[in-house]
Amino acid sequence: VDAEGAATRSAPGRHRALILAGAVAVAGYAWWATGLRPFTLGSLAAILLPGVALVTTSPNLRTSGPSLASWYAAQRQRFDARSSERWIWVSVVGAIVVWQLVNFFASPRADHPTLSSMLGAIEDHPVRLVLFVLWLALGWFLTRR
Amino acid sequence: MTADLTLAVWALLVAAFVVTEIVALRGSRLPTLGDLLRVLLQPRVGRWFLFAVWLWLGWHVFVRSSRT
Predict the structure, then answer these.
(1) Do A134 and B64 meet the contact criterion of CB atoms below 8 Å apart?
(2) Does pLDDT of A58 surpass 70?
(3) For residue B66, what pLDDT is reported?
């Protein structure tokens, strides 16, 4: 009984240790990936590896869902029912897209920075590491929900 | 001057985005960004589309402009 109790008590500890080890591994991977030179096979592999890992381990990408037509019809009804709230998001995201396009087609880039040119200009390694971890987290969310 | 104006508009837009998400998270009728993404993730084509966008974003930000 004591041995069983000890095993039960140690399970949360093992779980915490696994989470900590995973966080350290992700941080180490992100540190390595964000220190690579641009347009190299290494930097490309650093992006493709998490993609391959998510595709092979995510059941969500393989399970079927509603057909596109039925999904669109349902969302159309929901949008009409709550249009005032959803228009707020459409307006905010639409304004960002329009401003991105205005700057993308304007020059010089120094006077008209785009989102990607501002992100690309970040040289600070720890900041790039945080951005990479956020990108990984977004990928996890998209393939697990 | 032009760069300052461009950056000011960017700051305004990012602030609007963050405030909208905060208002949504505080329990208003406004859907959160997560809610909207979950809707897009319902059909399989939506899941693969967002996955492709995510992969492109990673390449665009981290491969095209990794540290030199």
Answers:
(1) no
(2) yes
(3) 46
Mean pLDDT of A88-115: 93
Is residue A108 reached through a cis peptide bond, with omega within 30 degrees of 0 on the bond before it?
yes
Closest CB to A132: pick one of B10, B20, B62: B62
Closest CA to A127 of A20, A26, A35, A24: A35
A-chain residue closest to B37, CA distance: A142
DSSP B67: -
Complex-level ipTM:
0.84
Would you call B12 an interface residue with chain A, using a CB distance cutoff of 8 Å? no
B6-44 tens-digit pLDDT: 999 999 999 999 999 999 999 878 889 888 888 889 898
For residue A31, the model assigns a pLDDT of: 95
Residues of A in contact with B31 (CB under 8 A): 82, 85-86, 89
**Chain A nearest-CA residue for B18:** A92
